[in-house]
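Troubleshooting entry. The earlier prediction with adenosine-5'-diphosphate gave an output that would not parse, so I re-checked the input for stray whitespace and re-submitted. Clean input:
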Amino acid sequence: MPKVTEQHVLDALRKVIDPDLHRDIVSLKFVKDVKISDGAVAFIVELTTPACPVKEQLQQQCRDVVMALDGVQEVNVEMTARVRKSMSAADIIPDVRNVIAVASGKGGVGKSTVAVNLAVALSQTGARVGLMDADVYGPTVPLLMGCGDEKPLTESGKLIPLERHGIKLMSLGFLLEKGQAVLWRGPLVAGTVKQLLADVLWGELDYLVVDLPPGTGDAPMTLAQLVPLTGVVIVATPHDVAANIAGKSVALFTRLNTPILGVVENMSGFLCPHCGEETRIFAGLSGEELARQYEVPFLGSIPLDPAISASGDRGIPSVLALPDSLQAERFRRIAGAVAAEVSKAALMDKELTGTAAGGEERPGTDPESG
Ligand SMILES: Nc1ncnc2c1ncn2[C@@H]1O[C@H](COP(=O)(O)OP(=O)(O)O)[C@@H](O)[C@H]1O
Ligand SMILES: [Mg+2]
C-alpha cells in the first residue's frame, strides 16, 4: 500500500474550487490540521462564513478527491467557519467584522422585513449578528423583532443592545420618546448614528446588519458615508424596478463608492395560499434584469405573501415563525448569497491592501465552535 502524505492530500484538495471566490481551497488557506494515520485522513476546512450556501457540496468534493488517492480508505472532513473582517468595517467599531447595509429607493418596499430576516437567517447558521435600525423616518425594527416598549440599559455610559431571537439589537426608536417627532437634519442624523455605532456595546460580531433610511436623499447618503460599510443590499419591488427608483438607488451607492452586495426583489409575485403557485403581478423589467443591467449580483426574490406581514406584526420574523415556508427558504438563500458576497469583499480588501486573511481576528472565536 503506498504511503499517503500531507502533500498528496493538499495536492488533491487543490482541485476543490470555492465557487464564490473562484479559487482553490488550498491556496485560500481553508485547509487546516491534516492528520493521516494509516489509510485514514482527517482535516478541517475553515470557510469564510458559516452561512456558506455550498458547504455540503464542498465537503463532499473534499471527501471525493481525497478518497480517490491511492492508499486512502477513510476520509473525515470537518467543516468550520471563521468570518473574516473587511477593512471597511474598521476603526469606530473594531470588534465588528462586517457591516451590511440594507437600503431601498423608497419606503414601504419591505426593506426592514428583509433586514430583520437576513439578520435572523445569518444568525441561524451560527454567525454572531447585530441589527442596527438607522431608519430615521420609521424605526420599525423593534416592532418587527417583538421588542415593544423595551429600552436598552446603559453600562458606564454605553448602551447595551437588546437581545431578541439571538440578535443584538439597537434602534434609533429606542432613543426617541413615544410619539416624539424629530426633524432629522444632516448633522443630527450624523451625531445620532455615530452614537448608535460607537456608544453601543456591540461586542464581537461577524455581521452587523443596518436598516438604512429609504430613498436617495440626505439621510441615507450621510449614513452610508458615516458608517464603515462592507456593502449594501438594495431591496426593490417590481414597481421600483419599473419606475427606475431602484436603478437610482444602485447608481447613488455606486457614486458613493459603496460596494453593492446585490439586489433583492421583494413582493415579486403573488403566492397563492391555496395551490402555493407564485404568479408575477407586474410585467416588465425584473430585479434580476436590473441587477444584470447594473452588473451587480442578484440575490433572490421574495413573493408577496400575507403571512410575511402577519409574522412581522407579531414580532417574529418569517424565518422563525414559518421556517418551512417558501419565503423562509428564500430568505435563507438570500442570506447565504449575501454572506458569499461579503466573503468576496473581504478577500478583495485583503488583496488590495496585502494584509493576511483573518489577520485581525483573535483565535477561538469560531462561531461554530462555541
Ligand atoms: N413579501 C411580502 N409579502 C407581504 N407583505 C410584505 C412583504 N414584505 C413586506 N411586507 C409588508 O409590507 C409592509 C412594509 O414592509 P417594511 O419592511 O416595513 O418596509 P420598509 O422598511 O421598506 O418601509 C409591512 O407591513 C410588511 O409586513
Ligand atoms: Mg422600514
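This one parsed fine. The domain at 6-81 is CATH 3.30.300.130 (GMP Synthetase; Chain A, domain 3).
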